[in-house]
Design brief:
Heat Shock Protein 90; seven-stranded mixed beta sheet
Length: 501
C-alpha cells in the first residue's frame, strides 16, 4: 500500500499542472475576447466611417486612382482633395492607417510601421520561442501568411503581431504587440460588388497585452507559492496517512476474515435447520398418512363425531406444518445455493390457469374474486415448472390471505414484444403495507408488526422464498404496495416464443 502516498503526490502535481494549463487558456481567452475582438470591431467601425465620410464622397478621385497612373494624379485637384480629406480623417486616429488601391499599391500612410524581425539573445531565445509557439497555437486564426491577399478576396483580416521589435525616434529597440486589420472597401455599382481598395489599420495593443501578462504572472506566482506550501504539507502528512491506510487495510482484512467466519457459521446453522426440517418430515408424513386413513375409516367407522373433528384438525395441522417445513427446507437450500432449478420450455398461460384453480376453493370460501388477465396467445418461457408453480401458489395464497371479504385478486400476464419480456403480476385489494415495510416483508422470516397483519398466520418465508426462486430462474422480482389499497407483485421473465392454441 506504499504507492498510495505517491499517487496522492502525483495527483496533486497533476492538479497543479491542470490549473496552470487553465490559467494559460484563460489568458488567451481574455486576450482574444477583451483585446483582439474589441480592437477588430473598433477598426471595422473606423473603416466603415472612413468609407461613408471620405471614400464614398470622392468617387471620381477613386475612379481615376484605379484607371490612371498615380504620378499623373499628383496635380489633379479632385485627387488632391481626396488625399487631403483622408489625411485629415487619419490624423484624428492615434493608430497607423494605410490605404491601398485595388491593385494592392499603397498610396497613403499616416504613420510608418517600424517592425523589425524578431530577434532575441541566446539566453532568452528558447523561452521566447516557446511563448511565441503558444501564441500561434492558441490564437492561430489571427496569424496569417498573407493578410493583404485575403482582403483582396473581400474578407476582412485581423492579424496579430504578438512579439515584434520596433524602433523609436532615438533608434532604441523595444518589444511591442499589434493588431493589423486589413479591411476591404467594397463598392456597390448597380448591384455589382467589387473591391475598390483596402484600408490597413495598425493598432498598438502593447499596454493591454502587458497588463494581461502581468496579471497572469501575479496569479501564477501566488498560486505557485500556495502550491509549494500545500505540497510541503502533503509531503509531511502522506506518510502519516499511509500509516492510517495500512492500518485500515489490516482492519479490513480482519473484518473480511470475521465475515467469512460469520458466513460459515450462518451456513452451518442453515444446514442444521435444513437437517432438522428433513428429520421432521418423516414423522409428519406418518401423522398425515395415518390421520387420512382414520378419516377415510379404512379399518372401521368412527362413531364419535368429536374424534372425527380432532382427526381432521390433526390432518390439517400436519399438512400446514409440512408446508412450513418444506418452505424452510427450500429456503435453507436456496440460502446456501443448493436449491437447483431445471429450466424447460413451458406454457405460461396453462401453468397460471392451473395455479388459479388450485387456490379457487380457498378464495371462494373467503368470498374473494379471482380474475385472470391473460393474452390470447400462449406465452412460452424457459423456467422450472415445479418452482414457478410454487411461486404462483405462494403469491396467490398470500394475496388471498391478506385480502378481506368481497375483495379481488388478479393474475395478469403481459408481454413486451420489443424487449422480449413477459410481465406476470399478482394484484390484490388487500391490506397493503407502507413503503418502509416492504424490505422487511421480503427479508428472511420478516413479518410486518402491525395490528392488521399480525393476526394472519405465517412464518414470513413466503415472499423471501418466492423472490429467491424467481431469481434462480433468471427473473426479476418487484413489489409495490399501499396501505389500505392493496399490493402488486410483478415478476419478469424473458419469453421464447408465442404459440397459437
Amino acid at each position: 500500500m506504499i504507492q498510495n502516498k505517491h499517487i496522492i503526490r502525483l495527483s496533486f502535481i497533476g492538479l497543479f499542472l491542470n490549473i496552470v494549463a487553465n490559467i494559460v487558456l484563460y489568458r488567451y481567452f481574455i486576450i482574444e475576447e477583451v483585446v483582439i475582438k474589441r480592437v477588430s470591431d473598433q477598426n471595422t467601425r473606423i473603416a466603415e466611417a472612413y468609407k461613408q465620410k471620405i471614400w464614398d464622397t470622392n468617387k471620381n478621385a477613386i475612379l481615376k486612382l484605379n484607371t490612371q497612373n498615380f504620378d499623373s494624379l499628383l496635380n489633379d485637384q479632385e485627387f488632391i482633395k481626396f488625399i487631403s480629406e483622408s489625411s485629415g480623417f487619419f490624423s484624428e486616429i492615434k493608430d497607423s492607417v494605410s490605404l491601398y488601391d485595388k491593385n494592392r499599391n499603397k498610396f497613403i500612410e499616416s504613420k510608418p510601421d517600424n517592425f523589425l524581425s524578431i530577434k532575441y539573445n541566446f539566453s532568452a531565445y528558447l523561452y521566447k520561442r516557446f511563448i511565441l509557439t503558444l501564441d500561434k497555437y492558441f490564437l492561430s486564426s489571427y496569424f496569417s501568411d498573407n493578410p493583404l491577399m485575403e482582403s483582396i478576396k473581400g474578407n476582412a483580416n485581423h492579424s496579430l503581431v504578438s512579439r515584434a521589435l520596433i524602433t523609436d525616434k532615438n533608434h532604441n529597440l523595444y518589444e511591442s504587440s499589434f493588431i493589423i486589420s486589413y479591411i476591404p472597401i467594397i463598392a456597390n455599382e448597380n448591384g455589382d460588388y467589387s473591391i475598390d481598395g483596402i484600408i490597413k489599420i495598425t493598432t498598438d495593443i502593447t499596454d493591454q497585452w502587458d497588463n494581461i501578462t502581468y496579471l497572469e504572472k501575479r496569479i501564477f506566482l501566488s498560486f505557485f507559492i500556495v502550491f509549494i506550501v500545500f505540497f510541503i504539507i502533503i509531503m509531511y502528512n502522506t506518510n502519516y496517512a499511509q500509516r492510517i491506510i495500512n492500518k485500515q487495510f489490516e482492519t479490513n482484512r480482519e473484518l473480511e476474515e470475521a465475515k467469512i467466519k460469520a458466513e460459515t457459521e450462518s451456513s452451518s446453522k442453515t444446514q442444521f435447520l435444513a437437517n432438522v426440517s428433513h428429520e421432521l418430515r418423516t414423522p409428519l408424513n406418518a401423522i398425515i398418512g395415518f390421520s387420512e386413513m382414520i378419516l377415510s375409516e379404512t379399518h372401521g367407522k368412527l362413531d364419535n363425531m368429536q374424534y372425527k373433528d380432532y382427526i381432521n384438525d390433526i390432518n390439517n395441522s400436519g399438512k400446514h406444518l409440512l408446508s412450513v417445513i418444506n418452505d424452510i427446507l427450500d429456503f435453507s437450500k436456496a440460502s446456501v445455493d443448493k436449491l437447483k432449478v431445471e429450466t424447460m420450455d413451458l406454457d405460461l398461460n396453462k401453468l397460471a390457469a392451473a395455479s388459479m384453480r388450485f387456490v379457487k376453493p380457498r378464495a371462494t370460501k373467503a368470498n374473494i374474486r379471482l380474475i385472470e388477465d391473460f393474452p390470447e396467445e400462449h406465452v412460452v418461457i424457459k423456467a422450472d415448472a415445479k418452482r414457478l408453480k410454487q411461486v404462483f401458489l405462494n403469491l396467490l395464497s398470500n394475496s388471498v390471505k391478506f385480502t378481506p371479504s368481497d375483495g379481488s385478486v388478479t393474475l395478469s400476464i403481459k408481454k413486451d414484444a420489443f424487449k422480449k419480456l413477459v410481465y406476470i403480476s399478482v394484484t390484490d385489494t388487500g391490506i397493503g403495507m407502507s413503503e418502509e415495510d416492504i424490505p422487511k416483508a421480503i427479508s428472511s422470516f420478516g413479518q410486518i408488526d402491525s395490528k392488521l397483519s399480525r393476526k394472519y398466520e405465517g412464518t414470513g418465508l413466503g415472499l423471501p422464498l418466492t423472490k429467491k426462486l424467481v431469481e434462480l430462474m433468471n427473473g426479476t422480482f418487484d413489489i409495490k404496495s399501499t396501505v389500505g389499497k392493496g399490493t402488486t407483485i410483478t415478476i419478469t421473465f424473458q419469453y421464447s416464443e408465442v404459440v397459437s392454441i
